[in-house]
Protein 1
Amino acid sequence: MSIDQNQLRLLPSIDELLQSSGGAGLIAQYSRGMTLRAIRAALAQARLDIFNGSTCPSSEQLLAAAEQTLQQVMQPHLRSVINATGVIINTNLGRSPLSQEALQAVQQVAGGYSNLEYEVEAGKRGSRHTHVTTLLRELTGAEAALVTNNNAAAVLLALSTLAMGREVIISRGQLVEIGGGFRVPDVMRQSGCMLIEVGTTNRTRIGDYEAALSERSAVLLTVHPSNFVISGFTESTPIAALAELAHRHNLLVMDDLGSGCLLDSAQYGLAHEPMPQESLAAGADVVCFSGDKLLGGPQAGILVGKAEILERIAKNPLLRAMRIDKMTLAALEATLRHYQRDEAAQHIPIWRMIAARPGKIASRATRWASKLQAQGIDARTQRGESTVGGGSLPGETLPTTLLAIDAARVSQPLDELARQLRMRNIPIITRILRDTLLLDPRTVLEEQDKEVVLGIIEVLGESVK
Ligand SMILES: *Cc1c(COP(=O)(O)O)cnc(C)c1O
């Protein structure tokens, strides 16, 4: 191997690069230490390239390589992405985007001190839970409310308070795994209660619960199956019948709704998602649900129900380990206020997406397509379906119009195009169905439309057949 010593000798020194105006610019932006490391790496790569027969890069090229490394390294690890998947509550993509009002509330509270656990008028210690209890009671008709950092915590906390060392009766049709490893039977074991399964996967009658009652029974639990539907020959026991049975035997009914839906989903052409107010009215003693599913707020667990029961839960020392954070509380209160003011469907992003008019979505898809066509990209629109996701309304879809790019019209495989769209500064997450790359405007925030079109142009511009 003949190494070109002359080419190696042409490489500038680290100091030369650091002291150049380009180097100084990088130091100002990224710190001296980070810049030094990136320049070292760029020089090492250049030496390797020269060994392999390349000529010596210019100082500008070396600094550009260093800058690229710095940009990559210094990019926030947790960052925003564009959700073009059409799954509205996408757990992998952070579930519910917050409303503008919720964001402002977080900023207000988190950027300074707050009355998180302080009663301003009395000038003494207060409780963080009081900030949302009145609202939750008003919105659900519950006697009392309590919040935790997520719904899994709410379930664990409630069961461990109400049924530790005792039996919890649940239908076999509801022993579900929600995703991310949340399995109802495991959570029940962790909370120290014994699981008594009754009925069959598709049918559980009130008599099945009744036959399982014993001295050790504490709670009849119902769990919303969330991410699947059993169809055909099915029967589940209504809450009212369970409550009647439980209360006759001095037991409690707990309902894990998963998604706390405070608006009637049926008005948007979806199936009716069970609502906390309905469970409570039917006699459930405690109902729990997530803050970031159909409620459209921050990650949180919400417990509503009978005052006496929630007082017991609030005294459980585990609550301290599951307590809600001030930023979450601020966002949760602002989100609940949208329901109080009857403006949830206009202000909460996931409800705006659910309620979006088909014509509006179609015109966005058409606009995307025509902008792309103007750049020589063979994009088209097609009818498709969006889903609600997030363990709510399983099997339910909303008609939508998708932007479609066919594999036959581009020179690269679709999964490579999808990867390049994900590798952008603001990653664009799409889906591939057979031979078509699909983007759903429903889940793309309107202010991101430009970025979507630009992203496709930059990725596809050179790959058009
Ligand atoms: C989603 C879900 C949970 C878990 O809620 P997190 O807020 O994600 O902790 C529990 N139970 C049911 C039925 C669910 O759908």
Protein 2
Amino acid sequence: MQILLDVDFLIQASKNIADSAVLSLCRQKRCQGWVASTSIPAIWQEAGVRNVQSILRDVAVLTPTAHDIDLALGSKKPFTQALATRLVEAAGLDAVVTLAPENFSGLTVEALTPGQLQEKLDAPPEPVEEVRLLDITASYHQILNEVEKEMAETIRSGHFILGPKVSRLEERMADYCQTKYAVGVSSGTDALLIALMALGIGPGDEVITSPYTFFATAGSIIRAGAKPVFVDINDITFNIKPEHIERCITPNTKAIIPVHLYGQCTDMDPVLQLAGKKGLAVIEDAAQAIGSEYKGRPAGSLGDMGCFSFFPAKNLGGFGDGGLVTTNSKELYKQLKIIRVHGSEPKYYHKVIGGNFRLDALQADVVSAKLNFLEDWTEKRRGNAQTYNQLFKDSALTPFVQLPPEVFSRHVYNQYVIRMGSRRDELRTFLNEKRIGCEIYYPIPLHLQDCFKSLSYKGGDFPESEKAARETLALPISHEVDRAQQEYVVQMIHRFFLGE
Ligand SMILES: *Cc1c(COP(=O)(O)O)cnc(C)c1O
């Protein structure tokens, strides 16, 4: 539950913080408390700086925009209550905690006394009625103030393109992925494209990849001017099957792009061995796999380059588009940096043709702030996967749904994908009716997409990919999903297959 703490309540509580039940609930994370920045001077005046600092350790600061203030000023109600109401609504909070709920009468906000809040939190939880596939704003309480700090620095400096914030993120990401270098770019898609360009791959070249992936993997190969050559997947991991690669290698083959789909690494040893033998480059599409590992080594450090995405739905997402390429090669690092700025080196002298592939400093700010939480969130996802596995087993559902196995630890579960026989679409409709978010990644394998007709593939060419596209369904798994929600999901799947 997310609550705004009204200034009258905070003034009283700040005089005896140790005794405040509500502040202690916030400290224990039984609810998420916010204080409007406009309330701080009054609390400071009444209770002194130490007490304000102490409160701010347990609650986050919500800063009204000029527009929020404008609206509150224009309201017929007293300003303080009108602004609190506006903030609760605009930020999607649940209630305001106040000593005088009557001051909020006639306003469209739930106003609770500290006692009523306590009662609400102590009451048995309301039954779950909705589980979203992803709820990005649910993490704002954890990250928003740090994000705001980073973004304010950038806005005040005016340094929006590359610059120190992007460099700092690159260093931290290289460290996180245990590579020597990282280059921030404009998206995960552009990470793939720029990686291909850095290798000099273009017309006449072939690049081997999986047909069961997000469009960008193959789209980037075509945009680089080369030809994607698809190889079917392993039916357990959904990743490219290394045994099938060799027979697809021709004299034109230049690289392999294994995709670490859903957050689990491809079986990389045979891929790397083959690539070494044949002199091919390996670009990891690690867009879904930040923090995943293969035999103790992080995704992005396994091939010649690793490509990451900061799309908001990825495990480490920005407030918009962004991406990153990791590498251990100094040569590739230099190429990537040149191609990122139109091939310019020095400025306005172009030896190669690049593009605008730059990462915004503001996105780097968001990603930097969230990176501090990535390990926590990843462990929470892994815990949620364990919980699902157990719940499915306990509900005798394993004859009906196949659970996602962790073949290579560690799986980071960008998606938790179950698989079943013929009733996938029916189940999806059923779950949507029960207000459970679920999604198909991906309904049409790439070799059957209209835009790739000229590659002359046909239905039946990659039976495992086609089967996976018919049988898989992703369930809500993000770190914000709690056990009660997971129980609801499994209970509804039980109802679908086995009745009440
Ligand atoms: C998301 C994704 C991409 C593309 O990343 P964007 O940042 O959205 O451009 C590429 N490959 C895979 C496997 C992805 O999931």
